[in-house]
Design brief:
Elements: E1 2-5, E2 12-15, E3 17-19, H1 24-36, E4 41-44, E5 59-62, H2 71-74, E6 85-91, H3 96-103, H4 117-120, E7 125-126, H5 138-142, E8 160-166, E9 172-176, H6 183-192, E10 202-206, H7 208-214, E11 223-233, E12 237-247, H8 248-251, H9 255-264, E13 268-273, E14 284-294, E15 313-314, H10 315-321, H11 328-331, H12 339-347, H13 356-370, H14 373-387, E16 400-403, H15 405-409, E17 421-429, H16 434-450, E18 457-465, E19 478-487, H17 493-506, E20 510-511, H18 521-543, H19 552-556, E21 571-576, E22 582-584, E23 587-591, E24 596-600, E25 608-614, E26 622-626, E27 629-635, E28 641-645, E29 656-657, E30 668-671, E31 677-682, E32 690-696, E33 703-713, E34 719-725, E35 728-736, E36 741-746, E37 760-766, E38 771-774, E39 780-785, E40 791-795, E41 809-810, E42 823-826, E43 829-833, E44 839-845, E45 848-849, E46 853-856, E47 859-868, E48 871-878, E49 883-890
Helix pairs in contact: 7-18, 13-14, 16-17
The structure holds flavin-adenine dinucleotide (FAD).
Length: 891
């Protein structure tokens, strides 16, 4: 057993074994041996990703030795592309930094060979776009959607033309958009080089969908051995960077135009925002703009930026003169504290002989405790401002510097260690709503501040073209990446992260896969919709049902194939129904055409009348299990509630009328964990359609009559389920209000007469028959169909005293379901009918809903469903002949 720790040191987890294959054949062997031992496998590059998608508990494959320029693949590239581009076959484990150096003809620090001379042709080749650091591996970077800030250029992965993957069984797969690599030639080359493992073949998956799925797949498609990447010839040009200070209020109104300009001019654009508000409520910003200029224009580069004839100076010279390293992590590693901070630390009695970042985070936490967040915000602000000067240290002229793309773009210090920050990155369309989204992100700092919690860090906006990868965090034609950097170890970081995730989900934004990413599969399904379905389809083609590359990370986020679930066929129940059925485990209850309630344990026969007296026409029956007996409740013809509690011999005594008020339509019931039962219904016309409640005084005991709860009128029937809080359980009721929006009310005590919260709207989600659903993990979910028949859910934040809901989000798109019938829940299943009466089901898999499965049938009205240890049973009434029919999913 070994231990994995990611570079940012926020995740440490056990691993059965690390392997470091040095060749394709060794890599295939590692995968096969792991499979033979029953272990999962996953690739790890530089382990720079914050939520550690590389981790698996089985064999982690280190890829640093797969970092050359594989000749067998290069020689099989038959479509080289335009003259100023080079398609280069490069090992997936090479770091971006080493790749940049090799392309530029500079010796690699890892001592490995550079770009073969025959390929470089004496030109200076560059990556088309770069992030701010190059320590990531190429495959790790593209596998998470890593990007730069070139407004007209997409993420790095979009420059890949082909991938050579080692999948489950050691299978080699060439994935490419078009036939740039000749697959037979590749096979021959591999054989000639002795690289094709015994028994292996090379399979080709060609097409947009295949490559768009495989490029960004977080290692789920297997291990990238080689990537075929398009690089640019920048021999004659230099990248020139100009920076200038402004404020957010000064910049925001013209941001759209500035983005347009950056796109049109193929420029890099970044806006760094200091989130600390100034006295006037505004915030400091620093804008960085980069353009490619012919080297001959460098003496007058200022002209391109409105700076007259100012000459550009070499970026490396200016950086060497700057007081602080340009990357915040390195700056925070400094042992020498800025004077202001040193004074504050001394004042508070904190040791000052540690790294700047450690002192700052201690200070922030301490001042939060002391109620003085502003103190350290000022200090953090000073560090942030000092990081990127807007004037050149050499001559105090406006910042105008140049270098190669990697010299300007990658300012990470590879020689010194650095302070690990927490990073989250949100992506939104760069459209008219963008400034509101940025304000939302800045609002997170405000929210924390309002709680007296200081948050140290900065916000950076970068712009890029949308990616075609199916799981792209930046899919929007014009995308903005909003990066939030937070000082590690602060008390507010967790809350900030939650708020940032909520913000992205609420506004259809996305999150970087390689930064802090705590999405669950429900959120991933909501955010990626049909693209996720497409991605899963491609995964199924590439990897079939194999789980070799499945990890806790991919499972939690639903990055797995859809597995069909097998239901039995519809079976005739042997009774014509006079109302909707009810289920209690395997026992089925249904009124016949004469409105006499019958029941059976074995659908298809054995029906017996429960009672000889009829119940109300079309009355929905409630069967509840409490104190080891069943209780049946149903409306009679006048809208009053009948009740019968099972006797020791299994029979049911005469109906009794539950005292109290009359109801309108269908009652619903719930059992407390101690067996006490409660019943709810919408009151009749005289009761002004308010919520009515009745309850058993103790388990198996007599009932209080129906009484009105609260004052709000209901626009439809209620739904109820229990929620747990510290060992006790309370009921939550959902119903539509008169405005057509879903409302909720929850018990404030243990139930019965203990009281209710006032009715509250549960966000702006219209729908007529909401379902309160407690899933097998105890999570309460509100589900509703909107008027168009699309399903939405809001999840309750568990473990809190007060009921709080996450924002509504859509379930997987699928059939339009009938909102007048609503949804039914059982176990982990959710069921609904479309307008033709066809049954569809979705179930929770790893916390999120699977795609809707067509369960067939042609049914009327609501279905009944129950779940037990032996599976799920669904019963409904067939259209046309009124026959009760059922289907079962065996566990
Ligand atoms: C200091 C720093 C700066 C950063 N700057 C930026 C930036 O400017 N822009 C940006 O977009 N992001 C940035 N990031 C995020 C970073 O690019 C991603 O986290 C990236 O995934 C890290 O690459 P890695 O090689 O370390 O991947 P790892 O963390 O090792 O792995 C990430 C994922 O890729 C998979 N993977 C790795 N290698 C392979 C392979 N050979 N085959 C198949 N799958 C593989 C892993 O299984 C895992 O799922 C930064 C991160 C840090 C720590």
């Amino acid at each position: 057993m070994d231990t994995f720790q990611n570079w940012t040191q926020n995740i440490e987890a056990p691993v059965a074994e690390f392997a470091t294959p040095k060749s394709l054949a060794e890599l295939c062997q590692v995968v096969r041996e792991a499979e033979a031992a029953g272990l999962p496998v996953h690739a790890v590059g530089s382990a720079w990703a914050y939520s550690a998608p590389a981790h698996c508990e089985g064999v982690m494959v280190r890829t640093e030795a797969l970092s050359g320029f594989p000749a067998a693949v290069q020689a099989a590239i038959t479509q080289p592309g335009p003259a100023d581009r080079l398609l280069v076959a490069v090992g997936g484990g090479i770091t971006i930094r080493n790749l940049c150096l090799a392309l530029d003809g500079i010796p690699r620090p890892d001592g490995r060979p550079g770009l073969p001379a025959g390929l470089s042709r004496g030109r200076r080749w560059t990556m088309p776009t770069l992030g701010g650091s190059g320590g990531q591996s190429l495959a790790g970077a593209v596998g998470t959607g890593t990007h730069g800030g070139d407004a007209a250029r997409p993420a790095i992965g979009d420059y890949l033309h082909a991938l050579l993957l080692v999948g489950s069984g050691g299978q080699l797969t060439l994935v490419q958009r078009t036939a740039v690599v000749e697959v037979n030639l590749l096979r021959d080359n591999l054989i000639a080089e002795g690289e094709l493992p015994p028994g292996a073949t090379v399979r080709e998956l060609r097409g947009d969908a295949a490559l768009d799925a495989a490029v960004l797949s977080l290692g789920r498609f297997g291990i990238v051995h080689t990537a075929v990447l398009a690089v640019h010839d920048e021999t004659e040009v230099a990248l020139v960077e100009h920076r200038w200070p402004t404020t957010w209020r000064g910049l925001a109104p013209g941001l759209g135009a500035r983005i347009e300009q950056a796109v049109a001019g193929d420029e890099f654009l970044e806006v760094l925002i200091n989130p600390v508000t100034q006295a006037d409520g505004d915030r400091k910003c620093l804008v960085s703009q980069r353009k490619s200029l012919p080297r001959t224009e460098l003496p007058v580069a200022g002209r391109a930026f409105g700076l007259g004839d100012q000459a550009s100076t070499p970026v490396l010279d200016e950086r060497s003169r700057s007081p602080l390293p340009p990357e915040i992590g390195q700056a925070l590693c400094a042992r020498e504290l800025p004077p202001l901070l040193a004074d504050v630390a001394k004042l508070l009695g904190l040791p000052t002989d540690r790294r700047l970042g450690d002192v700052l985070s201690d200070l922030l936490n301490l001042t939060t405790t002391l109620g003085l967040p502003q103190l350290v915000e000022v200090a953090t602000s000073a560090v942030t401002d000092a990081l990127k000067p807007s004037r050149r240290p050499s001559d105090n002229q406006p910042w105008l510097v140049h270098g190669t793309r990697w010299e300007v773009g990658d300012f990470f210090d590879y020689d010194s260690d650095c302070f690990r920050m927490d990073f989250a990155e949100l992506f939104f369309p760069a459209d008219a709503d963008l400034t509101a989204r940025v304000d939302g992100v800045l609002g997170v700092f405000e929210t924390l501040r309002a709680h007296g919690i200081a948050l140290g860090g900065y916000v950076s906006l970068r712009f890029l073209r949308g990616s075609t990868s199916l799981l792209a965090p930046a899919p929007f034609e014009r995308s903005c990446a909003i990066e939030v950097a937070m000082l590690r170890g602060l008390r507010g970081n967790r809350m900030a992260l939650t708020l940032l995730h909520e913000l992205a989900i609420r506004h259809g934004g996305r999150l970087h896969w390689g930064q802090l990413n705590e999405l669950d599969s429900a959120a991933v399904t909501q955010l990626f919709g049909g693209a996720l379905t497409g991605w899963r389809r491609e995964l199924a083609t590439a990897e079939g049902e194999s789980t070799t590359f499945s990890t806790a990370f991919t499972r939690r986020r639903g990055l797995e194939i859809d597995r069909p679930v097998d239901w039995t066929q519809w079976t005739d129940g042997g009774i014509r129904a006079g109302g909707p059925p009810a289920l209690a485990g395997n026992q089925v209850f249904v009124a016949d055409e004469r409105r006499i309630l019958h029941s059976t344990n074995t659908i298809g026969g054995g029906w017996r009348p429960v009672r000889p007296e009829p119940i109300g026409a079309q009355a929905r029956v409630v069967v509840l299990a409490g104190a080891r007996r069943l209780e049946i409740l149903a409306a009679d013809a006048t809208g009053r509630v009948l009740r019968s509690r099972q006797e020791a011999d299994g029979g049911f005594p005469r109906w009794e009328h539950l005292g109290g008020e009359g109801i309108d339509g269908d009652p619903v019931g719930a059992a407390h964990t101690d067996g006490r039962l409660e019943l709810f219904a919408r009151g009749d016309f005289q009761r002004q359609r308010k919520l009515m409640q009745a309850w058993a005084h103790w388990p198996g005991g007599p009932w209080a009559g129906l009484m009105q709860v609260g004052s709000g009128r209901l626009g439809g029937p209620p739904s109820v389920c229990g929620r747990s809080f510290h060992g006790s359980d309370q009921l939550v009721v959902l119903a539509t209000g008169l405005t057509g929006y879903v409302r909720w009310s929850a018990q404030t005590g243990p139930g019965g007469a203990s009281g209710w919260t006032a009715w509250q709207d549960l966000g702006a989600q219209p729908g007529s028959h909401p379902l309160a659903f407690r899933d097998p993990h105890g999570v309460v979910r509100a589900l509703v169909l909107d008027p168009a028949g699309r399903a939405f859910e809001a999840i309750e934040l568990t473990g809190e005293l007060a009921v709080r809901w996450q924002p509504w989000r859509a379930l997987p798109t699928g059939p339009r379901l009938d909102p007048t019938v609503g949804l039914t829940g059982a176990g982990s299943w959710l069921l609904g009918l479309d307008r033709d009466g066809r049954l569809f089901g979705s179930h929770l898999d790893g916390g999120s809903w699977t795609a809707w499965q067509d369960l067939g049938g042609a049914l009327t009205g609501p279905v009944a469903a129950s779940a037990g240890t032996d599976g799920v049973l669904v019963a409904g009434i067939r259209r046309g002949d009124g026959q009760l029919v059922s289907r079962r999913l065996n566990a």
